[in-house]
Amino acid sequence: MGEIAADERGLAAGGKEAEEEEETSPIEQVRLTVPTGDDPTLPVWTFRMWTIGLLSCALMSFLNQFFSYRTEPLIVTQITVQVASLPIGHFMARVLPRRSFPVPALLGGGEWSLNPGPFNMKEHVLISIFANAGYAFGNGSAYAVGIVDIIRAYYYRSISFLAAWLLIITTQVLGYGWAGLMRKYVVEPAHMWWPTTLVQVSLFRALHEKEEFPKGSRRMSRSKFFLVALICSFAWYVVPGYLFPVLTSVSWVCWVFSKSVTAQQLGSGMHGLGLGAFTLDWTAVSSFLFSPLISPFFATANIAIGYAVFIYVIIPTAYWGTDLYHAKTFPIFSSHLFMSNGSFYDITKIVDSRFQLDQDAYGKLGVVNLSTFFALSYGLSFATIAATITHVAIFYGKEIYQRFQASKQEEPDIHTKLMRKYDDIPAWWFYSLTVLALTVSLILCTVLNDQVQLPWWGLIFACGMAFIFTLPISIITATTAQASTPGLNVITEYAMGLIMPGYPIANVCFKVYGYMSMNQAVAFLSDFKLGHYMKIPPRSMFIVQFAGTIVAGTVNLGVAWWLLGSIPNICQDKVLAADSPWTCPGDRVFFDASVIWGLVGPRRIFGAAGNYGAVNWFFLIGAAGPVIVYIFHRIFPSQKWILMINLPVLIGATANMPPATSVNYNAWLIIGTFFNFFVFRYRKKWWQRYNYILSAALDAGVAFMAVLLYFTLTMENRSVTWWGTAGEHCPLATCPTAKGVDLSLDPTESRVCPVF
Question: What is the arithmetic mean of pLDDT over 377-391?
């Protein structure tokens, strides 16, 4: 069965290759993408690398943490720095003095210079590794910062800066330890080829190729195009970011039908199904799903199908057709938690002085209710977990096994041979780091247990889960590029919620140690493979990754501490002004998860004592789905399109909802289709030259203008008040439509809704 995937992608299935191919790589994609030469004399430990790398890491950490609290949390990615750092590196190579200085014998002797020569690709790769740490290896900001956010902004409790810093750093460094222990199994072998890293290799080669234009050509250089696009993005964002925020979600259906609840539920891009909603704000396009310009069209098409089925078939049927889980008593699209009468659930009333569940208060207020949208979103996440496991086992299992077996027996390929010129990382570096991180984590869970709640045995259990999952998930990612880690966070939440209900912070700490340390390990291993392909000295990789992780985590926490203490009512979307950008959609979902899995516990939500026990059947449905697809493939082997059905992607298409909304998906899908289908097909040369450059410029321009607006206007309380700054203008989209539900009876309610 594994050969199905191998045949479809034309991968080598193992066996002895021709001598010429053995000198390159047994994997065709690697042979076509990765250069087989190396120049060990190129300097990498340069002033330029450290200056640009540290500054980009700190800047990206600041920007991504800053934006994480906003309604449209733009994530500035590694590609932005990858593109922007190139002209800066060349500029420093031109202007820095070339004078050499003697290095003391104690430090190795020789000479050192601020400017050892032209800016080279190896320096550029290390800068991008710094940048990768700056956006938390794909997460935007350090995941553990969410714990600080919910403690201070939602539970209204406190945590010390020291405890918070130790929590953030240890969860990241533990992942580094797992990565070091697994490196020899999933980085050095040629059959562990990490497909996603080839995109980075291709971009590095494209950026460093010498640009030559025919005489009289009007073609623009990449650096000039980047500068022009950045200026345009920077200038435009002042409109949706300050003067005319309504452009973030143009929900014209609400304007036409200003008194219809149903029309606004259908038309609202922020609180409804987004029918006809669009945006002129790049942050709304790239928030949650990253830039649509870097997503291949195949993935975009799968997400489009899954999104359309969920939002425009399943949700309307559940809400208007069957009133599933009393759907009409709650908003059609919401991540909030509710009382049985449709009003918001005041979670603070069921938390006692010890930061645990007050069972008497919970008994009086009643069970926690979810919107049907939120409940079904959890159901799809359950199905995605099961479908991913079954899909990988059926369609990739044999291939993964063959690759792993080959990796243990194969001769080293050309890339591994070239890397042997450099001193390897001593094993004791990783062992020491792992022991140190575990020791500090145990101190955190014992001496400072009153702040994190996680007992020492919970930490050991979480680390055990992370360690067990790291190798198989790394092998899957290294051989298939399947997104296998989404959903595993739910497993950790579910497990700890069953074992230790009533402790919300213990649950999220367990999730961070159990899930995120593994996720970090896979990201570290991916970076190690990138360094392997680009012939970066391993010890340089180690130090840069470690330094970037410490810098990024510290900056993330510093920004969080500053904003949580300086912005009144941050994250409280029920009391903030309609045009306030500080609604923290990601933290809202993180908080809800801490309540569902930790404070209340899965038995009272998805068990016999809750309303949503049937949602557990989604595990079985997800597991069975790929089996059915495989059976149809065996019955109709000539129908090649059946193999294109990727159920984990289809089912998990809306995994980012919530906190993502329909306007985010609408815009992302339209722009992604335009650039990666039409432009790619009909203007391929333009796409090859400028597509990634445009994506980076749009991200950077918006990020810099947003920060400028905050420091120059928002902090000075200078605002513009008119119709275009008064929110989305869909006030009825969050109203219930069940008969007799009267929210006016609840004095804490801010929604003004009609009674049916």
Answer: 85
